[in-house]
Amino acid sequence: MARVPFVCGNWKMNKNVPASLELVDELLGSVGPIQGVEIGIAPTFLALHPVRKKIQAGKLRLAAQNVHFESDGAYTGEVSVSMLKDLGCDYVLVGHSERRQYFGETNASCAKKTGAALRGGLRVIYCIGETLAERDAGRHFDVVSLQLREGLTELERGRASDLVLAYEPVWAIGTGRTATPDQAQEMHAHIRARIAETFGAEVAAELRIQYGGSVKASNADELFEQPDIDGGLIGGAALDAQGFLSICRSARSRG
Ligand code: PEP
Asked: Which domains does the chain have, with CATH numbers?
C-alpha cells in the first residue's frame, strides 16, 4: 500500500497567538485543493486551543511540540498526553534535536513519552538524527540505530501505524545546509531496514519517515522524490504560508 506523505510545520518558539492564527488563516485559504498529502502544523502550546477551534475538523492536523510522560502530578511547567488530547491535538513531536540538546531529552525519556502518547491516543512524530561530529566520525548509522532501539522500547506493534519517524540530521537543522537527496535516502533506507528487523516487514513498509533539515520550496522536490522519504518536518520554511504550501505540493506530486 502506498504511503501517504506527511508534511508538518514545526513553528518552534515562534509566532504568538494572533500571529499563529494569521498564519493558519493563510494556510486554510489554500490548503483545500492539495490532495494526496497529510499536512500538519505544530504551533506553540499557547496557540493550540485557538488554532484547533479555527481549523476544526478540517484538513490540517494539529501537533504539539512536546509532552510529558506522566499522566498528572507535580511536574511544574509540563503538559500531559490527556491535556493535549482534550485540546484536540492529533500528533506530538518527541525527541526533537533542540529538546535533546537544550533540555536534556534522552532516548530513554523519548521512549517513555512515545509510549505514553501512543497509549493515550496521540500519534507521535519521533525525531532522530546525528550531529555533524557523529557524521564526520562515520558514526551516523550507529547513532540513529541506537535512537531507534532505545527510543522505541515502548512501541507495541499494534500501535505502529500511529508512529511517524522524522530523520533530521542535526547539522542540517536551521543551518541552511541540507542533506543531499542521496545522503537522506541512504539513511531513510537504513531506518526502514532497522524497523523491519525489529517490528517486521509489514510495519516497515507502512511506516512514514519524514526528512527534516533546511527543507524549502527549492529543494523539496528532489528530497521527496526519494523512495523512502515520505514528506518532511519543516522548521523555518513553515513560518511562511506560501513557502510551506509549496513544500506540501512537492510532497503530493511524488504520489
Ligand atoms: C526542525 O526544526 O524540525 C527543522 C527541520 O528546522 P529547519 O527546517 O529550519 O531546518
From this structure: 6-250 (3.20.20.70)
